[in-house]
Specification:
Number of strands of chain A: 12
Helix content of chain B: under 10%
Low-confidence stretches of chain B: none
Oligomer: heterodimer
Distance between the termini of chain A: 41 Å
Number of helices of chain B: 0
Number of strands of chain B: 11
Shape of chain B: globular
Radius of gyration of chain B: 13 Å
Largest interface: A-B, 23 and 21 residues
Structural class of chain B: mainly beta
Largest sheet of chain B: 7 strands, mixed
Radius of gyration of chain A: 13 Å
Order of helices and strands of chain B: EEEEEEEEEEE
Chain lengths: 114, 112
């Protein structure tokens, strides 16, 4: 069965510091992988996605993620965090073709301190 | 990308009543999804609503509790029936397009 694990419930970083949010998935076939961000009171916004090809994918707002099949991981990174990045981040895996039936991780709440 | 709106954005309801949430998309889409996000939790898929067919419900969700309509390619409704405080959640609709899902802003429901 598909599952997504985000081991870090809450992360606090200083503004300007680097960030890495962890995501591990369990899926039998080649997964479709996504990172979404949810700001307070907002819906979900897609940061980036991986379907195939280059395992390092670039997204919006300066985020990137690397797919590592051997580790079943799809970690999200940003070299320098801005205060506006404070939000909830969700990793998701899609089954089938494209984004049918997304399975979400439990999320990681990011706090940015000045 | 699709632009999705939901009504109402939030509501406070009494237990035992029902609420219908509307989801409107600015373009025609085949696949629409309804999710529930309980307080402090992740998103859980309630059902998939494709135009022209009955909604497909995920384990733990039933049509009598969460009836869904999909009258055309740009609109869907989710009704939360006979509400209890445990139904207090954010309900989000999304659409499948270009191998990804686009989400609406959500409806925050509080049941007293």
């Amino acid at each position: 069965a598909q599952s997504v694990t985000q081991p870090d419930i809450h992360i606090t970083v200083s503004e300007g510091a680097s960030l890495e949010l962890r995501c591990n998935y369990s899926y039998g076939a080649t997964p479709y992988l996504f990172w979404y961000v949810q700001s307070p009171g907002q819906g979900l916004q897609l940061l980036l996605k991986y379907f195939s090809g280059d395992t390092l994918v670039q997204g919006i707002k300066g985020f990137e993620a690397e797919f590592k099949r051997s580790q079943s991981s799809f970690n999200l990174r940003k070299p320098s965090v801005h205060w506006s990045d404070a939000a909830e981040y969700f990793c998701a895996v899609g089954e089938g073709t494209g984004a049918n039936n997304l399975f979400f991780g439990t999320g990681t709440r990011l706090t940015v301190i000045p | 990308s699709a632009v999705i709106s939901q009504k109402p954005s939030r509501d406070i309801c009494q237990r035992g009543t029902s609420l219908t949430i509307q989801c409107q998309v600015d373009s025609q889409v085949t696949m629409m999804f309804w999710y529930r996000q309980q307080p402090g939790q992740s998103l859980t898929l309630i059902a998939t609503a494709n135009q022209g067919s009955e909604a497909t419900y995920e384990s733990g969700f039933v049509i009598d509790k969460f009836p869904i309509s999909r009258p055309n390619l740009t609109f869907s409704t989710l009704t939360v029936s006979n509400m209890s405080p445990e139904d207090s959640s954010i309900y989000l609709c999304s659409v499948g397009q270009y191998n990804e899902q686009f989400f609406g802003p959500g409806t925050r429901l509080t049941v007293l």
